[in-house]
Amino acid sequence: MSSRLCIFGSPFSSYYNKIKIALIELDLPFEEVPFMPGAGNWPESGSPSGKIPFLHTADGNIYESQAIVEYLEDIRPQTSASLFPANPIERAHCRELIQYIELYLDAAVRPVYPAAFWGKTLNQDELEEALKNLEKGLRTLERRANLQQWLCGERYTHADAAAWVHLSTIRRMLKILGQEEFLGRHLPALPGYLERLAERPSTRRVEADRHEAGRALKKQQSASQGN
């Protein structure tokens, strides 16, 4: 195993891409190792929960995405600016926003991801419940976030990285399920904010890699069906 930082997981994972953006933004060299959740039993499963992503370091593995982000901040080069605000209360606010995004937005819609992305049957009751909870989560975010620039103010932070990976996934899910206007209808400033995030170099790289992985997967599936 390389002594360089190695991120295990899939470019289709929001949490994987959250870590990848942090690695890019903090200018930390890293390698990517394709790894699917539930790949064998512990320790072959990679993480104690069997989930992805996880990070391999020379000193051991780290398994939860936010713990990984905090570790990357601790080891970032002195030439790289922190993606946490300098002020203690503002740092706490940044971490708070990450939790809002992951607990009240991402978790709210996870039950309908199998229908949107993996071809499972859509349960209308689950969809209605997910949309109701998503609307509540958007109201919570609006009360605490600055959507006119970056979430925490004038500087891009880890909260913005979390916002992109989760909200862009939610946006794709909503489009697939015929709810394309949902985000803009309930939080009008959100589409413009996402456009700004999409222009960031780290975002462009992550999205390019995700699209390339999607093309490779389709090619593999076509070849498999042809056989």
Automatic annotation (TrEMBL):
The keyword RNA-binding does not apply. Residues 3-80 form the GST N-terminal domain. Residues 204-227 are annotated as: Disordered. Gene3D superfamilies: 1.20.1050.10, Glutaredoxin. InterPro entries: Glutathione-S-Trfase_C-like (IPR010987), Glutathione-S-Trfase_C_sf (IPR036282), Glutathione_S-Trfase (IPR040079), Glutathione_S-Trfase_N (IPR004045), GST_Omega/HSP26 (IPR050983), Thioredoxin-like_sf (IPR036249). Pfam families: GST_C_2, GST_N_3. Residues 87-217 form the GST C-terminal domain. The keyword Transferase applies. GO terms for molecular function: transferase activity. Keywords: Transferase. One of its GO terms (cellular component) is cytoplasm. PROSITE patterns: GST_CTER, GST_NTER. Residues 204-215 have a biased composition (Basic and acidic residues). This is Glutathione S-transferase. It comes from Eoetvoesiella caeni.
